[in-house]
C-alpha cells in the first residue's frame, strides 16, 4: 500500500495494539476469523476501532466526506420529508449513528424554521468517542432550547413514534465475504476469512451448514464470484421494525438493488476502504485507522422490512429524493447575483445531485408503519419496482 499516506507513530502504535487483539481472537478461533468478526473488531473495538478511536473521521481533515458535511442543503431538504411525517405522527426524530452531529444540528435548525420541531431528537450512537464529538458540536452550534431536545440512547426504544434516520449507517455494518468457486459441485460455497502468519492474509474455507449457508443459497451466485452478505444489516432492519410503532424509517446509503448488486460482472464484490480521502480495497492493512464499508443490498433491506411488518414507502436515487424534497427551491431563495453565498451552494448541490458525484450512487429507501399518505421524497422517480 505504498500509495497510501503513512500513519504517524501514535496511530501506528494504536493500530498495532488492535492488531494484537485480532491475532489473539484468530488464535482463540482455531487460526481463522470470519471477515464479519474482523470488520467488527477493526471498526468497533472500544478505544481502538476506527469508529471508537480518536482520529478525525469526517470532513476535509478526515477520511471521507458525508452529505451533511458538504452543505446544510442536505438537511434542509431532508427536513421537508421529516416534517411531513412529524405532522402526521406528532412524534420525535431518532438518528442512528450521528457521525459528527452535523445532520442533527442542521436538521433541528431547519425543522425550527418549518415550525415543526420534535419534542425530542434522539441519537443512538455506539461510539463513546463520537458521542463526545456530537455533544460538543451540538452545544457549540445550537441555541439552548434546541440543544436540550437532543438525548443519547444506549438501545432502541419501544414503540417509537416519528422518524428514524440513518445516513451512511448500513454500509458500516459488518459483512461476511462469500466466495463461490468454479465447481461441478452446485453446493460449493466458501467463506473468506482472515488468518495470521506474520501479517493478516485471506483464507477461504467451506461454508458449514447453518443460517448463513441457508441465506447465501437463496442468492444464486455465478461461479468464480466474491460478494458480501450482511445478516447483521437485516437484523438491524428487523430491530428498527420492532421498535417503530408509528412513523417512517429513512435510510440513505450507497448501494444497489439485488439485480445490480449480484450482477455477474461485479465478481469482486463491493468492499471499499477509506483512509485520508484515498479509496482502496485492502481492508487487512492499517487496521483500526481506516474505514471499511460495503455497498448496501437494498432489495434485502426492503424484504427484511416487509417481513417484519413495515411497508415499503419508496426507493430512489439521492438526487431524485432531494429534488422531490425541494432542494432546488431552497437554493432559489439565494440570489445567483450574490456570488459569495450562491457559489458555495451551487458547488454543494453539484456534489449532492450530480450522477458523477453522490446523486446516483447514493440511494434513499423509506419503510413505514401506519402512515396514511405517500411520502413527498418519492413523489417522482420512485424505483421501488426494481427491488
Automatic annotation (TrEMBL):
Source superkingdom: Bacteria
Keywords associated with the record: Methyltransferase, Transferase
Gene3D superfamilies: 3.40.50.12710
Protein's UniProt keywords contain Transferase: yes
Gene Ontology BP, a term: methylation
GO MF term list: protein-arginine omega-N symmetric methyltransferase activity
Name listed for the protein in its UniProt record: SAM-dependent methyltransferase
Organism: Methylotenera oryzisoli
